[in-house]
Amino acid sequence: MNPRTLSRLEMMRAAAVVAVVLAALVAVAWQFVEPAPPRTVVIATGSASGAYHAAARHYAEHFEVSGLELVVRETAGSIENYALLNTPGSGVDVAIVQGGTAPSDKEKRKELVALASLYLEPVWVFYRGEAQLERIGQLAGRRIAVGAEGSGVRALSLEMLAAGGVVGGQSGTMLVDLGGDKAVAALREGSVDAALFVMGPTAPLISELMHTPGVRLMSFEQAHAYARRFRYLSPVTLHRGSLDLVRDLPEREVQLVAPAAVLVARKDVHPAVVALLTEAAVRTHRGGDLLSDPGRFPNDTLTELPVNEQARYYLTHGPDFLRRMLPFWLAALIHRFVVLLIPLFVVLVPLLRLTPPVYRWSVRSRIYRWYARLRVIDERLRGELDVEQVRKDLLLLDQLEHEIGGLKVPLSYMDEFYDLRLHVGYIRGRLEERLTVPGAPRTEGALKHG
């Protein structure tokens, strides 16, 4: 074989060793690479006419631009949304829920995280009558619509009414499971005396009730006390005329308490989906409203659940460098392989530096193999003369010298290389001596190898 070919083969063998080590590292690291983000994500909201549903539609448009589909599922409200999130196989990945409605079961909470508080949605208490009511306790003895079964409105209404001393079934108080349009209709018709709602100030139902004769809005004079007792509530002020400047509604400043609408997800939702949802929430809600200044929401406060760290980072610092510079799919792809690329980069440089030593080891092993062949010839020289074998050994030495002459040896091993050539010459001389002086006495002595 051509000596240059031999040299190339040695280099290829060294590179192959490095490649095998690198492939093993890739195989191990691959086990930790995240799967690709799902093409379809399901979000649970509330009724089709509600604010949660409308917000989720905006999120869906943002997902569509990024190449993913966000399926918006209509539900009865926050209680059902939490139940769907905690039910394996429901298909629901995320949900918009009302603050104060998280499951009390710690095991169920462990599987959920908050992504962001989206905006404040006050508790509105509308009632019939001329008297000005300022405390929840003044509703005792009345027929009160507390929201539909399974809704977050009902859960919060019952909690606040109990705290205010209004207990269903006593002192003539009747709690009616009506919410939304049905509660508005019942209040207008007089089949209920009061109704509680939880929604944003621009909701059509609020405007309708504000313009309904005989129906008044309660101002929570104990707003700060409620906010201290229920940490998910915030005291807010609805300024005079903020709902209708022309009709000057409300006619005075109104104190309200407000939970926040919260974007909640299962803990195992893909990180790329978390980033996209948080980005969609920021773009949808950052403009502010009648109750909050621009930029206040979304944020990582006013949640009952721990906040996802990736979502918290986005809310605090904005999108990372890759998301700012690249399309969603490409940024998600790079994020997937970061866990693979970083350790590989750290290992690859030492591996590349290892290639020359591996190559030198390969050369040294070949030198050792040549010495082994020389030793066999040397041992035959100690035996009886066999002219035919001597000629064969000389041909073998010619081949050996040809191989050695075409080999490129690292400088650090040149001493061994030249020693080898000297020993080849020594053995050749002894072989030629046996052919020219057959009767001469045999030379004793072993071949030395350093």
Mean pLDDT: 83
Helix content: 40-55%
The helix-strand sequence is HEHEHEHEEEHEHEHEHEEEHHHHHH
- Largest sheet composition: 5 strands, mixed
Strand order across the largest sheet: 2-1-3-12-4
| Straight-line distance between termini | 27 Å
Strand content: 5-15%
Put simply, the count of helices is 14
How many beta-strand runs? 12
Keywords: Membrane, Transmembrane, Transmembrane helix
Pfam family, one: NMT1_3
Protein name: TAXI family TRAP transporter solute-binding subunit
Transmembrane segments: 328-352
Provide a descriptive summary of the structure in words.
With 450 residues, the protein is an alpha/beta fold. Strands 2-1-3-12-4 form a five-stranded mixed sheet, sandwiched between helices. A five-stranded mixed sheet has the order 7-6-8-5-9. Strand 6 (143-145), helix 5 and strand 7 (174-176) form a beta-alpha-beta unit. The two termini are 27 Å apart. The protein is rod-shaped and about 140 Å long. The chain contains 14 helices and twelve strands. 48% of the residues lie in helices and 14% in strands. Pfam families: NMT1_3 (PF16868). The chain crosses the membrane at residues 328-352.
What attributes does this structure have?
450 residues, alpha/beta, five-stranded mixed β-sheet, 14 helices, rod-shaped, disordered N terminus
List the helices and strands and how they pair.
Elements: H1 3-30, E1 40-44, H2 51-65, E2 69-73, H3 78-85, E3 94-98, H4 106-109, E4 112-120, E5 123-128, E6 143-145, H5 152-163, E7 174-176, H6 180-189, E8 194-198, H7 204-210, E9 215-217, H8 223-229, E10 234-238, E11 254-258, E12 260-266, H9 271-285, H10 309-317, H11 321-325, H12 328-381, H13 387-405, H14 414-436
Parallel strand pairs: 1-2, 1-3, 6-7, 6-8
Antiparallel strand pairs: 3-12, 4-12, 5-8, 5-9, 10-11
Helix pairs in contact: 1-12, 2-9, 9-10, 12-13, 12-14, 13-14
